[in-house]
Design brief:
heterotrimer, A alpha/beta, B mainly alpha, C mainly alpha, A: alpha/beta, Rossmann fold, 10 strands, B: mainly alpha, MetI-like fold, 3 domains, two-stranded antiparallel sheet, 2 strands, 74% helix, flat
């Protein structure tokens, strides 16, 4: 029905330019379906940039140009005929800093489905989404309160609930736990594992332990002398962390670089 | 100014060099009498104090200005109401303003003021808000850099020029559209529309500031859920900036009520209790200008009466301004 | 794999109740269409603002130039002697013509003002035009009509004003700028008003610049924000900025014109104009406008001072400078461009103000240049207001020409403010940014914000 295959999303020779500066060059990545894929690498290597290319979030910044192709269910999402609005509904995103709307908790979850034409029982949907994000028990008594009153970790799980409410195939997460304390981080990681049964998750992280803990696959990016990011190695997480095929990956993993 | 960094560095190196030298000297001195080499006690700096006092006075002049306004308006108004023919009931109850024949109903002036302001807001609020949304959510950096100076020009044109525009352009236009029998030469509609044009830049720039202050992360979240640009602008950004936009609207109303030259030139010269926007009517500000522009002798009844009107005008605009500041403080969403 | 996927799908929060496939596509298309419609509406709003500005400028230009129909009391051709036209006659001949056509009393008055032996022939020629030829504007047309409906103007003029002289006239001329007020529209000028405006604005700046900057320094550098008095001053300044200008006029009328009359009329200095010794003088007007723009200068000054990076202050303090030394040597020089820009903009506001000066008591008619701060005054906006209020069309033309003068004056000032700002932005500010990078990073960059979709 959805044409879902082994790979949720594939990039082919994808390069990103800010003006004339090449931020990332020639990325070929095939992200497996219903797995967690981590993107790691030193700061400035374009991890977030690559992530944002997967749901055309980079469109929103002027002066950005993307070459190559990104295939989602067999279609190049950068094709002129593709509507970025639909792409972003199918490929959701959770950001580094929790960014709930200044609305009620309930509205935060309901809003995305409403604009996308949801016709079912909204209360039930909100409950399911919040349960999926492991937040229901904490907020069920204060659904009509402002989401800005939640703690950082709760806000981030609310953002995840909000993202899964609109039925995406893929959830992109840009360092989702970097602004959280260790306990909240653990909850987010558990949640990601649960969600990976239903969704493909791509997560950018600067924390290698986190990548090793939660991900099935890992992509390692590095930055060359022109400050351009390159995909060095992409493999099963276990292999990357125990037996990388590239020297620079090993250097990074063992802390000799970055 | 680019020298400052090296200066700062020089300071540090001088500091570090002084250490051992000073230590050697003080060791020698303490052997002599135990007097500290440096007297670090606070010394009175007369010049500094005088300067600070003068600067404080500069700031205090603003308080004096306000006190002056309150004193002047209050005193003359008291004289006005002390007149045995005047009382508050007549002032707020009457529908005729003819001090010469002892009619002191403020309503004709108030209704004209409100009518002109309402028309102005009907023009300025939708147009100003749409411009703000366009500038903040749609326009490219380049477009914005062209459009904003144009709006600044619109805001910088003196009001007397707008008055001229109302009388020689807008009024003939209205009379041509609705018929010369219906639209009088002086009318509140023409003045109101032009006041609206005058405050468009105010509404648009204040609203745009509020919209722009909404963090980009909210927009990204919205787009990330598959929202279109319109949905993001109207249903995420605008509600998040609502307090700022509301404050802009209120300031604009206050500005429209206080606007003087446009109504003085185009709205009419004579209090007229009417609700037709196409008839001549005199606003509070227009009345003050007309009376004070003529031969006005101090302590005459006319003289006192314009201060009473001025006091009412001051109270209305002041409360609107305070309200707008309160809204901004009260409803400011804390994003950080 | 597919089966597994479907099972998972069923467990998702929306239970497949969201439109999908073609239904969703249709819905997205409809939403995008609505988005485009509103984008057009937003653009139309911007366009309407631009149209309003264009209409305003067009209207003024339209009224400043165009055909006029003029009827002379005596045709200049009749005054020609032996076929020599009026403007080529000698001075003695011109004086002769003048003597033959005006009363002896008027001639004596002219002789008293300035003996004819000292007058130039141009001057006498002008007197003849004024008193003998006496041109009168019968009708005037706008620039638009004059260009596109020229023929019908001549026909109409011929019908309504037979024998009239129809020619294209620019109401904005050098003599319009150099001549003083006159009740004859063809000879009226704005010189008095320009001088009045300059005098008033000079007083305004002298008063409000030092006090405004002083208050800004106090509030930003010295005032403890927690103290009630300082908070009161700050709130008060914000509120004063929103008080209608006419209220300032009433303040000026009651305080400067009435209570301080002895000072503002110049009486205590013995320099006032005795015939009109009251407080309705240039200094009253200047002080009133000074109070009016004071909040603007303070608020602008505060912003400029706040923009000075604190590391600059620290480096000054680090060298053992006193607070005032740091302000005077470091803070003020780098805040100065911002302060000046704000002052220029506030000044241009003062130049355009009308209502408070009407209330303070600008003179309705003066033809003598102001001689000092204790003179009676008129200013450009007042002149425009008075001409606009006259029912005759030709005064509207004069008002339009005066508006052009005013707008050019304002445009020059605003342009200089913009240039100053740009110069500052390119030069010093960028130097700051490189040195004090960390200080400036709280100003969030705009690239963070979302643009196109």
């Amino acid at each position: 029905m959805n044409g879902t295959g082994r790979y949720a999303i594939e990039s082919g020779s994808m390069s990103v330019f800010y003006g004339s500066f090449c931020a990332v060059r020639d990325v070929d990545m095939r992200v497996p379906t219903n797995k967690i894929t981590a993107i790691i690498g030193p700061s400035g290597c374009g991890k977030s940039t690559v992530l944002r290319c997967f749901n055309r979030m980079n469109d929103l910044i002027t002066n950005v140009r993307i070459e190559g192709e990104v295939l989602f269910q067999g279609q190049n999402i950068y094709d002129d005929s593709v509507d970025p609005v639909e792409v972003r509904r199918r490929i959701g995103m959770v950001f580094q800093k929790a960014n709930p709307f200044p609305k009620t908790i309930y509205e935060n979850v309901a809003w995305g489905t409403r604009i996308n034409g949801f016709r079912g029982d909204m209360d039930e949907m909100v409950e399911k989404a919040l349960r999926s994000a492991a937040l229901w028990d904490e907020v069920k008594d204060k659904l009509q309160q402002s989401a800005l009153g939640l703690s950082g970790g709760q806000q981030q799980r609310l953002c995840i609930a909000r993202a899964i409410a609109v039925e995406p195939e893929i959830i992109l997460m840009d360092e989702p736990a970097s602004a959280l304390d260790p306990i909240a981080t653990l909850r987010i990681e558990d949640l990601m594992k649960e969600l990976s049964e239903k969704y493909t998750i791509i997560v950018v992280t600067h924390n290698m332990q986190q990548a090793a803990r939660i991900s099935d696959f890992t992509a390692f990016f590095s930055v060359d002398e022109n400050r351009t990011g390159n995909l060095i190695e992409f493999d099963e997480t276990e292999k990357i962390f125990t037996n990388p095929s590239q020297k620079s990956t090993e250097d990074y993993i063992t802390g000799r670089f970055g | 100014m680019s020298q400052s960094a090296p200066v700062a560095q020089a300071a540090i190196s001088a500091e570090s060099m002084r250490g051992p030298v000073a230590g050697a000297e003080s060791a020698g001195e303490s052997a002599l009498g135990g007097e500290p080499q440096y007297d670090l006690r606070r010394k009175p700096r007369v010049a500094e104090s005088i300067i600070q006092g003068f600067l404080f006075l500069c700031g205090a002049i603003s308080i004096l200005t306000t006190l002056g306004i309150v004193y002047v308006l209050g005193r003359e108004s008291l004289l006005f109401f002390a007149n045995e023919e005047v009382n508050l009931l007549k002032f707020f109850g009457g529908t005729e303003w003819q001090p010469a024949i002892s009619r002191f109903g403020i309503w004709p002036l108030v209704t004209a003021t409100l009518m002109a302001s309402l028309i102005a807001m009907a023009v300025a609020l939708p147009v100003g808000l749409c411009i703000a949304i366009f500038l903040s959510e749609y326009a490219s950096q380049r477009t914005r850099s062209i459009l904003k100076p144009i709006l600044e020009i619109l805001a910088g044109i003196p009001t007397v020029v707008y008055g001229y525009f109302a009388l020689t352009f807008m009024t003939p236009l209205l009379r041509g559209t609705f018929g010369r029998d219906i639209v009088e030469i002086y009318n509140t509609a023409s003045a109101g529309i032009v006041i609206g044009i005058l405050v468009i830049p105010l509404v648009s720039s204040m609203s745009e500031d509020a919209l722009s202050a909404v963090p980009g992360s909210l927009r990204q979240a919205s787009y990330g859920l598959g929202a279109t640009r319109l949905e993001t602008a109207l249903r995420i950004v605008l509600p998040a900036a609502l307090s700022g936009v509301a404050a802009a609207f209120i300031v604009a109303i206050s500005r429209a009520i206080g606007e003087t030259m446009i109504v003085a030139i185009a709205a009419g010269a004579g209090p007229n209790f009417t609700f037709s926007p196409f008839r001549a009517a005199e606003t509070m500000t227009g009345h003050i200008v007309r009376i004070s522009g003529g031969d006005l002798s101090y302590d005459s009844f006319d003289y006192n009466s314009i201060f009473a009107i001025g006091l009412l005008l001051f109270l209305i605009t002041l409360s609107l301004n305070v309200l707008s500041q309160w809204i901004v403080r009260r409803f400011r969403e804390e994003y950080e | 794999m597919m089966a597994v996927h479907q099972q998972h799908s069923a467990a998702r929060p929306t239970d497949g109740l969201m439109p999908s496939g073609p239904a969703y596509r249709e819905q997205v298309v409809a939403r995008q269409r609505r988005g485009r419609l509103w984008a057009v509406i937003f653009q139309a709003a911007v366009l309407s603002g631009i149209i309003a500005l264009c209409a305003l400028l067009f209207n003024i230009l339209n009224q400043s130039f165009g055909y006029v129909a003029i009827v002379n009391n005596i045709d200049p051709a009749e005054l020609a002697i032996d076929g020599v036209p009026l403007n080529e006659l000698t001075k003695d001949q011109l004086v002769g013509i003048l003597e033959a056509n005006v009363s002896a009393g008027l001639m004596r008055r002219y002789e008293h003002d300035m003996p004819f032996s000292q007058r130039s022939s141009e001057n006498v020629h002008e007197l003849i035009l004024e008193r003998v030829v006496e041109p009168q504007v019968q009708a005037s047309w706008g620039l638009f009509e004059s260009v596109f409906a020229r023929g019908s103007i001549f026909v109409e003029a011929e019908e309504r004003f037979p024998g009239s002289d129809v020619y294209f006239r620019s109401w904005l001329t050098t003599s319009f700028i150099s001549k003083s007020q006159s009740s004859e529209p063809l000879r009226a000028g704005v010189r008095t008003a320009i001088f009045g405006s300059l005098w008033v604005v000079a007083i305004t700046i002298l008063f409000s610049f030092p006090i405004g900057v002083g208050a800004a320094i106090y509030l930003e550098e010295y005032a403890h924000k927690e103290r009630l008095l300082n908070r009161l001053i700050q709130t008060n300044i914000n509120n004063l900025a929103g008080v209608p200008s006419i209220i300032y006029g009433m303040l000026g009328l009651a305080i400067f014109v009435r209570i301080l009359e002895a000072f503002t009329s110049g009486a205590i200095f013995g320099v006032g104009d005795q015939s009109t010794a009251n407080g309705r003088t240039i200094i009253s007007a200047g002080l009133t406008l000074g109070l009016l723009i004071l909040p603007l200068i303070i608020i602008n000054g505060q912003e400029a001072i706040r923009a000075v990076p604190s590391s600059l202050r620290q480096s000054g303090f680090g060298l053992g400078a006193t607070h005032w030394q740091v302000i005077w040597h470091h803070v003020l020089p780098s805040a100065l461009p911002g302060i000046l820009t704000g002052t220029i903009l506030a000044t241009s506001r003062a130049i355009g103000e009308t209502a408070p000066l009407v209330v303070v008591g600008a003179s309705t008619f003066i033809a003598l240049d102001p001689s000092g701060p204790f003179s009676k005054f008129t200013v450009l906006p007042i002149q425009i207001y008075q001409w606009t209020s006259r029912p005759q069309d030709e005064f509207r033309n004069l008002a339009a020409a005066a508006i052009l003068v005013l707008l050019v004056l304002l445009l020059t000032m605003n342009a200089s403010a913009v240039l100053l700002r740009n110069h500052f932005d390119r030069g010093q500010a960028s130097a700051y940014r490189s040195i004090y990078k960390n200080d400036c990073c709280h100003k969030t960059s705009r690239s963070d914000r979302i643009r196109s979709n």
